[in-house]
Specification:
The complex is a heterodimer of chains A (493) and B (219). Chain A is built from 20 helices and no strands. Chain A is an all-alpha fold. Chain A folds into two domains: 257 residues, MetI-like (MetI-like fold); 184 residues, MetI-like (MetI-like fold). Chain A is globular, with a radius of gyration of 24 Å. With 219 residues, chain B is an alpha/beta fold. Chain B has one domain: Rossmann fold (3-Layer(aba) Sandwich). In chain B, 39% of the residues lie in helices and 25% in strands. Chain B contains eight helices and eight strands, in the order βββαβααααβαβαββα. A six-stranded mixed sheet of chain B has the order 4-5-6-3-7-8, sandwiched between helices. In chain B, strands 1-2 form a two-stranded antiparallel sheet. Chain B is globular, with a radius of gyration of 18 Å. The chains are: A mainly alpha (493), B alpha/beta (219). At the A-B interface, helix 7 of A face helix 1 and helix 3 of B.
Chain lengths: 493, 219
């Protein structure tokens, strides 16, 4: 029964993906896409390592912003986790989470301008909301201490029983989030903050591909070695050093903030008291010309990317599994997947955009590669843990289809549906690069300084995200996939 | 009188775990509760704990240790309610010397004093069980309710532990699987079978037939 449910849902999503593909624009608009691709690839052999020292400030700035932002996000997130059951808190955080950190950066750019404070807030706000949710789930999950033995000093018992029990899990999730924060901070550079993304895009635009490679390689090294340089001995030193390394804060202009909240984001016809007719016209104009198109394109891109992610993951996971590949090939595939996993979708999409020109192609490719690599990696791990009987077939294709895939397919769907909401969030943001998803319209609203429209579009984006989250949870419940994964799915959120 | 049950029945959903049991236990008695698993021992013990929560300490079968805390903290937990919040936090961060001394003394009798700062997750089953026992001892209550506290201990330690448990509490009610240990270490045995009272006698009054019946009921 379970199998047929899985297959039905899979076929359903596959068909939706195909239909979406028919409506999608996948054209290549650059004249010689492969020439640029070739130039870019060849540049990897022209890396000039003497430039490392000049690029280190970009890296240090990225790390210090990520560390300081995580420092605050962990504290705020933990406090919020304690009151997460409150309906108001839960709903507010759902909205906060549903808006991508780049969008937050765009909002704060309007208020505080281009500086460190904007970068910090753009990470702290959505990350606090995510940490609050996952922390509260972890805390809920960990409490094996018998209820009847708990005394009246509730706080003391909380600190002596729940916290120690949950601590390893909390720490490992926080480390994973720190890795995400590094990636997020890096892409904040694309809106002008002097982190890695800033240097990356300027090198790219000038055609210095070897510099792009060097930056990427330095970034991979930083991410791959996190657990070496970021540990319990170094953490306090790193946090203090990061605070000291940050640029001077500009004096905060509260007038800007008040103007933003009370005037800028209030719909124009309401602000000018233009009457109900004008307000409805304002809204319906945005609705038909931007919201409908933006939502449709966001969904189309999400569904195509979801199917492509699934296909890539299903094809590549055997490459890193001991049941299918030899040691050498596994090592090679691992490096490849780690690189794809560590590169933010946004950077991948940016690179493909330069190659193929603006269409859904760069965005879909980027989403497929990044998310496919993440799921393939987890599937490979699950497959390694499978215990097959000794007389199992020696033919690899039969092994894949008859023994391995049926056993891990439930987990695969669980991973995929956990990732769905994130693909949707990224699909919206990739609009900034020129695909007409919601991010495109938000970005143009900001360019025209129509912040009221920006706010409305952000609200729509958040609602769309929350809707996907709810549907995804419903499907996971229907398929009962939750039971099939041993981890909590943390590293997918 | 410590406990007085008259026609006591306890059921979970539709399952009758304790079936009209009449029983009274006086202060100062050391009672062994015998019976197969599923006979209702744990249910009865838990009920007793609920009745006198403040004057009794309880050792559940699953022990209820916090894996990620060391032995010291797992034992100290039983004093959380008696100390101030700040004193508790201080002990969590850096244990106070007088507490270390007191807890070491309790652990010494159980041959565990060398494990004071080992995380409980790294202990063997028998060691964990002794940590749970130390926690109950450190609570310094009048009544002890212990649910199979020696199931993972060897014979020597089992006897020694029962001696410690019975001598450091006024009243002891302890579930066991071992008839000989029950008769040797306690004043009174109560046998349970399918939630009903099978036998309730002082140890010196047990006949040969009673013993055989008990062996049969436990195995």
């Amino acid at each position: 029964m379970l199998l047929s449910k899985n297959i039905n849902i899979s076929i359903g999503f596959f068909l939706v993906g195909i239909v979406c593909f028919l409506f999608a624009d996948f054209s290549v608009s650059t004249l010689e896409p492969f020439l640029e691709l070739k130039k870019f690839t060849v540049a990897v052999f022209e890396i000039d390592f003497t430039q490392v020292s000049s690029l280190i400030p970009a890296l240090l700035n990225t790390i210090s912003i990520a560390v300081v932002a995580m420092f605050f996000a962990v504290i705020i997130g933990f406090v919020l986790a304690l009151v997460f059951q409150n309906f108001f808190v839960r709903t507010t955080l759902a909205f906060t989470r549903a808006i991508h950190e780049l969008f937050w950066a765009l909002i704060f750019l309007q208020i505080f301008g281009l500086n460190t404070l904007t970068a910090l807030l753009a990470i702290i706000i959505p990350y606090s909301a995510i940490l609050a949710k996952v922390y509260s789930e972890i805390l809920e999950e960990h409490d094996k201490y018998p209820k009847e033995l708990k005394g009246e000093s509730l706080v003391s018992f909380y600190l002596y029983t729940k916290i120690p029990d949950a601590l390893p899990h909390l720490i490992s999730y926080t480390l994973y989030r720190f890795e995400c924060a590094l990636r997020s901070t890096a892409i904040l550079g694309f809106v002008g903050i002097t982190t890695l993304g800033y240097y990356l895009s300027s090198s790219f635009m000038q055609g210095y591909y070897n510099e792009v490679w060097l930056l990427l390689i330095m970034f991979y090294i930083v991410i791959a070695t996190i657990r070496i340089w970021f540990n319990k001995y170094s953490v306090s030193f790193i946090v203090i050093a990061s605070f000291l390394y940050l640029d001077e804060f500009p004096s905060i202009n509260f007038e800007n903030f008040i103007r933003f909240v009370t005037s800028d984001i209030v719909p124009h016809p309401i602000r000018t008291d233009a009457g109900l007719d004008k307000t409805i016209a304002w809204f319906s104009n945005i609705f038909t010309n931007e919201i409908l198109i933006g939502v449709a394109n966001t969904i189309v891109l999400t569904q195509i990317a979801l199917v492509l992610t699934a296909i890539l993951a299903l094809i590549t996971f055997p490459f890193i599994s001991i049941k299918f590949s030899n040691k050498f090939f596994r090592g090679l595939s691992h490096i490849f997947l780690v690189i794809l996993r560590s590169t933010p979708e946004y950077i991948l999409a940016y690179i493909f955009l330069q190659m193929f020109g603006p269409s859904m192609l760069p965005a879909a490719l980027a989403l497929m590669l990044h998310n496919g690599a993440i799921i393939a990696f987890l599937m490979g791990q699950q497959t390694n843990e499978l215990e097959l009987r000794l007389d199992v077939t020696k033919k690899k294709n039969e092994l894949y289809l008859f023994e391995v895939l049926p056993r891990v397919y439930s987990q695969f769907l669980a991973f995929l549906f956990y990732r769905w909401e994130i693909i949707m969030r990224e699909s919206a943001i990739l609009g900034i690069l020129g695909v007409a998803t919601l991010g495109f319209f938000i970005d143009s609203a900001i360019a025209d300084f129509r912040l009221d429209k920006m706010m409305l579009l952000l609200l729509v984006t958040a609602i769309l995200n929350i809707a996907i989250d709810i549907i995804s949870r419903k499907i996971r419940d229907y398929l009962k996939v939750e039971q099939s994964i041993t981890s909590c799915g943390c590293s997918l959120k | 009188m410590a406990y007085n049950f008259v026609n006591e029945s306890i059921s979970y959903d539709s399952f009758l775990a304790i079936d009209s049991v009449t029983l009274n236990i006086q202060k100062g008695e050391k009672v062994a509760l015998l019976g197969k698993s599923g006979s209702g021992k744990s249910t009865l013990l838990k009920r007793m704990y609920e009745l006198q929560k403040h004057s009794s300490s309880y050792i559940p079968q699953e022990l209820g240790l916090v894996n990620n805390l060391c032995v010291f903290h797992n034992v100290y937990i039983s004093q959380l309610d008696n100390n101030s919040f700040f004193y508790n936090i201080r002990n969590l961060i850096k244990p106070v010397q007088s507490e270390i001394n007191d807890i070491s003394n309790v652990l010494k009798d159980l041959l565990l004093d060398d494990k004071l700062f080992i995380k409980s997750i790294n202990l063997s089953g028998g060691q964990k069980q002794r940590v749970a026992i130390a926690r109950a001892l450190y609570a310094k209550k009048d009544i002890l309710l212990a649910d199979e506290p020696i199931s993972a201990l060897d014979e020597y330690l089992s006897k020694k532990t029962i001696d410690i448990l019975t001598s450091s509490h006024e009243t002891v009610i302890c579930t066991l699987h071992n008839v000989d240990l029950a008769i040797e270490g306690f004043d009174r045995v109560i046998g349970l079978k399918n939630g009903k009272l099978l036998l309730d006698k002082r140890c010196e009054d047990l006949t040969k037939k009673d013993r055989e019946e008990l062996y049969y009921a436990v195995e």
